[in-house]
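Exercise 3.2. Students should predict the tertiary structure of the chain below and write it as structure tokens, then compare their answer with the key that follows.

Predict this chain's 3D structure.
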Amino acid sequence: MPTKHEQILQHISSLGIGNKISVRQIAKNLNVSEGTAYRAIKEAENQGLVSTIERVGTIRIERKKKENFERLTFAEVINIVDGQVLGGRAGLHKTLSKFVIGAMQLDAMMRYTEADSLLIVGNRVKAHELALNEGAAVLITGGFDTDEHIKRLADEKQLPIISTSYDTFTVAAMINRAIYDQLIKKEIVFVDDIATPYDQSFYLYAKEPLERWYQLNESSFHTRFPVVDEKNRVVGMVTSRDIIGKDRTTLIERVMTKNPVVVQAKTSLAYVAHMMVWEGIEVVPVVDQSYTLQGVVSRQDVLKALQQMQRQPQIGDTIDDIISGNIEVLGDDQSAFQVEVTPQMTNQLGTLSNGVFTSLMTEASSRLLLQFKKGDLVVENLTVYFIKPVQIESKLIIKPKLLEAGRIYAKIDVEVYNEQKLVGKGLLMAQLI
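Answer key:
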């Protein structure tokens, strides 16, 4: 039987797109406490089933597929521009394919305005009406209102008309930034991208005898299984090491390892990889906020994903991507690297930022380790000394030196030069993956 938490999530999933949801309403309809309803609604928000908008409330939205990363819903636009809905609330779940800045004559404006687009315009009521009739939503800048018949038209067409206090240029920049951020987020691999889902996972119940472990082992060839209670909450892990010499009638709860390490669906791949190396773990259960089993992720899953990531082109460039693209080997010296300081690497004073300085040392150290076929690194500790500021367009020489390298750990000394003068030093301790 599903828990109250699961019942609420199922109820929210069954609601129509655009329905408004409240904690009090859910608690009353399903006869649960408001605290339970609140936690379930937050979980639904994490899963992309609902969206909470200031001054609007929580509404049921269509869960976006990951490949639609370049599109935003109108509900998300409200959050981005700190707007308020004037009409057409039922269409907040819809996505916009493009936005048009209405800084032109009406006839020219309408040539660019089409269905599923967003017209960004000031207090031009005729433009609001024409856009809605074309199937486009409207974002009014400058904090202006619109006529009542426009609001009624928006409700009728189920197309949001939104007002924001920001100016047109600022709004366009904010929406562009949000789309760019989603491009970067698309490249981040999370646990739910690689995990084996619940209905395909092997697990044991705490009250079962060890005989059940042998049956699962024979059918799956696995030796490590999550252990759950009667509500499917993870309470332990059991491995072949735990059952050696134990009677097959012994209950699993007596031999399992309690309080196992778990992860959630939105845990990043990098964190899981680091944790598996650090803890020496082969399999990690994936749980939700109530510790209910959602699936499992294995070391093999992580390794395959890491290999796949290295073959994928990056779409949204982070600062690490910019550093990686600019740093190169210095001539024939495979243990030294050079890089030119670009505007993106500087702070507001026009000098190399401390964060980028650290990233340059880490990237050079990582490339040095790859030359020794030691694998990728996860920084455990990095001590950095900034000796002199580095100006924009400076050409830096980075010289990492491997002091010590074992099977799991590496210690690297890094020196950074500008015009043959030492500008920084670092000592890096890392784990190897």
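Discussion points: The two ends are 41 Å apart (CA to CA). The longest strand covers residues 421-432.
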